């Protein structure tokens, strides 16, 4: 079954890390992806996301007149920093991998089943 591992955190923490600390977290994600692969986990997709100031919120269904505002969320400081989509046996295995995911201080990883349509 496919699960998405969504990295939630306070972007101010990421912005407060040195370039070396940010690079180490990026490298840790490369190692995490390698560990998934070596364990036989199918990785459908993995990506870090650009800064939240680049996000736009679009109201669907409004055609060319649909309102667009700055994102990533309507309010608050939490942001979605990246994601992995993995194919594992069950939720317990997905949670187990989420526990090993590299993260900035205070980040959380949301584990959610993927609904394929």
UniProtKB/TrEMBL annotation:
<dbReference type="InterPro" id="IPR011008">
    <property type="entry name" value="Dimeric_a/b-barrel"/>
</dbReference>
<comment type="similarity">
    <text>Belongs to the YciI family.</text>
</comment>
<dbReference type="InterPro" id="IPR005545">
    <property type="entry name" value="YCII"/>
</dbReference>
<dbReference type="Pfam" id="PF03795">
    <property type="entry name" value="YCII"/>
</dbReference>
<feature type="domain" description="YCII-related">
    <location>
        <begin position="1"/>
        <end position="115"/>
    </location>
</feature>
<protein>
    <submittedName>
        <fullName>Transcription initiation protein</fullName>
    </submittedName>
</protein>
């Amino acid at each position: 079954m496919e699960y998405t591992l969504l990295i939630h955190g306070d972007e101010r923490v990421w912005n407060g890390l040195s370039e070396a600390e940010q690079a180490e977290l990026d490298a840790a994600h490369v190692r995490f992806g390698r560990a998934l692969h070596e364990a036989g986990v199918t990785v459908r997709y993995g990506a870090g996301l650009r800064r939240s100031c680049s996000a736009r919120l679009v109201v669907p269904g409004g055609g060319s007149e649909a309102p667009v505002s700055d994102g990533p969320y309507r309010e608050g400081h939490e942001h979605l920093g990246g994601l992995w989509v993995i194919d594992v046996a069950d939720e317990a295995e997905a949670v187990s991998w989420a526990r090993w995911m590299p993260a900035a201080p205070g980040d959380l990883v949301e584990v959610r089943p993927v609904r394929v349509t």
